[in-house]
Amino acid sequence: MRFTTKTEYGLVCLIYMARKSPGQSVTIKEIVKTERFSATYIEKILQKLRTANIVISHQGKQGGYALAKASSEITLKEIIEALEGGSTFDVSLNTFGVFCAPQIRDRIVCTHFSMCGLRPVWHKTKELLDHFYGSITLETIAKEEPEVKNLVTVN
Amino acid sequence: MRFTTKTEYGLVCLIYMARKSPGQSVTIKEIVKTERFSATYIEKILQKLRTANIVISHQGKQGGYALAKASSEITLKEIIEALEGGSTFDVSLNTFGVFCAPQIRDRIVCTHFSMCGLRPVWHKTKELLDHFYGSITLETIAKEEPEVKNLVTVN
DNA sequence: TTAATCTGGACAAATTTAGTCTGGTTTTGG
DNA sequence: CCAAAACCAGACTAAATTTGTCCAGATTAA
């Protein structure tokens, strides 16, 4: 149980942007120079974030990406939903909402042959995570300093 | 973000076993007849559960599987750890513990080039889920009745 | 003994994730 | 104007992971 690299890389990009002065735009080239990600892959990720109205972009020379709103207004929840959302099993709709019970038209349909009490558990999991991630903003993540004692950079 | 079918199928099997009288053993054949799972796949899952001391098995004619302890003593946490545990990214060790920071020898090493404040977030996620799943027993899941209003069986 | 059952490991198929490639379009500075 | 710098879009490929299958062997009750 994990998030994909899209969420990981996307978060690193957003943290990078959050540390710039508000409104200042950033090019993919610049991010890639710092983080050594694949430029074309980061493009994809930023496009997802743009569709979700988390970043805005400007085309053309002097173009780039910037946060669409203050970092204190962007929650981890919306970032994760934007980036995990394209997966076959996405955070908000499939996994914990209807894990053992896909929705067919307007009814929840359990595909197991004996009834089980799992749905409330997955539902509560989703509630827990939504509440937690909904309470964390990009500002917090970008500000927070790692515990130097346990955290060492490579290069 | 989801659990694999191993966890899903495994839970269904355990619920099936929990509803038998204590100590009564169950064959794969019997489970498969009820749930229409692949027998060979269920074998693999039950072997994982056996290794984790959640079920015990008896070989030979009249053999089968039974819960290794009372269903009230088996938590969802240990079931999930047993079944997701073999994955490359497992619940207890990799994902939320050290998502952006693999452990190399005895130090946590952040592979990103700019520091980020994500580790405490994944750590807290793990704590939340461990606490929640640690508090739910197989007995509870096996007992609980689905809300018939929203939950319809197929077949 | 023998049929029923679990055991264990190699193997294969399907799915998903991760990443590349290529040819666009838009904008702006000279 | 126009060429360079940047984003846009989508098909495509490769790698990794999940989801199984197959089967010979070990064990045990009847």
- Tell me which oligomeric state these chains represent: homodimer
Helix content of chain A: 40-55%
Order of the strands making up the biggest sheet of chain A: 1-2
How many distinct folded domains of chain A?
A: 2
The biggest sheet of chain A amounts to: 2 strands, antiparallel
**pLDDT averaged residue by residue of chain A:** 78
- For the record, give the distance between the C-alpha atoms at the N and C termini of chain A, rounded to a whole number: 29 Å
**Helix segment tally of chain A:** 7
Strand content of chain A: 5-15%
Q: Low-confidence parts of chain A, pLDDT < 50 over ≥5 residues?
A: 88-99, 101-109, 146-155
- The string of secondary-structure elements of chain A, in order, is HHHEEHHEEHHE
Global structural class of chain A: mainly alpha
Largest interface: A-B, 57 and 56 residues
The number of distinct β-strands of chain A equals 5
Radius of gyration of chain A: 18 Å
Shape, per Cα inertia axes of chain A = elongated
Can you put this structure into words, describing what you see?
2 copies of one chain form a homodimer. Chain A has 155 residues and is mainly alpha-helical. Chain A folds into 2 domains: 5-70, Winged helix-like DNA-binding domain superfamily/Winged helix DNA-binding domain (Arc Repressor Mutant, subunit A), CATH 1.10.10.10; 72-143, no CATH class. In chain A, 48% of the residues lie in helices and 11% in strands. Chain A is built from 7 helices and 5 strands; from the N terminus they run αααββααββααβ. The radius of gyration of chain A is 18 Å and the shape is elongated. The first copy, chain A, starts with a helix and ends with a strand. Mean pLDDT of chain A is 78; it is low at 88-99, 101-109 and 146-155. The interface between A and B is large, with 57 and 56 residues. Chain A binds a DNA duplex (30 and 30 nucleotides) through helix 3.
